[in-house]
Amino acid sequence: MPPFLMAGLRFTIAGIMLYAWMRLKGVPSPTWREWQGASLLGALMFLLDYACLFWAEQRVPSGISAVIWR
Question: Which sign does the torsion angle of CA 12, 31, 41, 65 carry?
């Protein structure tokens, strides 16, 4: 299974679940400007932060990447 695809799918499902929970609790939907900022931040975090970790875990043992990452 492609690691980037599976990680992206996992984060997407988690985001949808958190959004649904927020809406069920009665919190108003974010504004368009908040959606833009959150989308930019989410894309940058995934592409620059987590993608590097997922790429490295294919090349080094996961224990070493966990120690270095934390």
Answer: negative
Residue 11 has pLDDT above 70, yes or no: yes
Res 6: pLDDT: 87
Decide: 17 and 60 in contact? Cβ < 8 Å.
Answer: no
Contacts for 50 with CB less than 8 Å, ≥ 6 apart = 7, 11
- CA–CA dist 13, 52 (Å, integer): 21
Under a CB-based contact definition with an 8 Å cutoff, are residues 56 and 65 in contact? yes
Alpha helices for the chain (secondary structure H): 3-24, 32-44, 51-56, 62-69
**In whole angstroms, what is the distance from residue 20 CA to residue 12 CA?**
12
Please name which of 53, 44, 68 lies closest in space to residue 7, comparing C-alpha atoms.
Answer: 53
